Amino acid sequence: MAPPLDGTDELATVLAAARSGDLAAFEILMRRHERLVLVTALRLLGKMEDAQDASQEVFLRLYRNLGKVQASQNMAGWLYRVTVNVCHDVRRRRPEETSVEDAAELVAMGDNPQQAATRKERRRVLEMSLRLLSEKERAALVLRDLEGLSTGEVAGILGTSQATVRSQIFKARIKMKDFVERYFRRRT
């Protein structure tokens, strides 16, 4: 298992080694960030197979662009931006609706059967409500609310203003709230 990259100095060292062709160093970069990329891709695409393909493409782009990535840059921010772009490309090529069933499996493990059933129902409702959103609203909401990034970080990743991100998230939340209310009203 790869050791975590705790600081900018360590990241710079590993990045320099990877640039010089050290595949073990590149593997450390991948292991350190694979969960971030895969979970984000899964939340954006909704299907594990597509998320895995996107994740591979993200790390291929990282490998090809090692010379352009600066150690002083926010590596996670760069990876989020590339992940969003790759997912956009995947969705454009495969517009069919997909499932986000596997996303929570990567995030939480070990619940009792009651908790598992509740979690599964919540995932299903989340999946259905995310389908209502435009691609930009979905990306902004996933990065801000599910990945926990700041509005400024999301704006930088998506190449837009903070005001636009706040607007997209506001609209997305309203659409999702309305859907959830209608969904549970129909079930009672």
Secondary-structure map:
Blueprint: H1 8-19, H2 23-45, H3 48-64, H4 75-93, H5 103-107, H6 113-131, H7 135-146, H8 151-158, H9 162-187
Helix pairs in contact: 1-2, 2-3, 2-4, 3-4, 4-8, 6-9, 7-8, 7-9, 8-9
Distance between the termini: 48 Å
- Which band does the percent of strand residues land in? under 5%
Assembly level = single chain
Highest-level CATH class of the largest domain? Mainly Alpha
By helix and strand content, what is the structural category?
Answer: mainly alpha
Number of domains: 2
What number is the mean pLDDT?
A: 82
CATH architecture of the largest domain: Orthogonal Bundle
Total number of strands: 0
Tally of alpha and pi helices: 9
Query: Uncertain runs with pLDDT below 50, 5 residues or more?
Result: none
Biggest β-sheet description:
none
Residues in helix, %: over 70%
Order of helices and strands: HHHHHHHHH
- Give me the CATH fold name of the largest domain: Rna Polymerase Sigma Factor, Chain: A
Radius of gyration in whole Å, from Cα?
18 Å
Shape, per Cα inertia axes: elongated
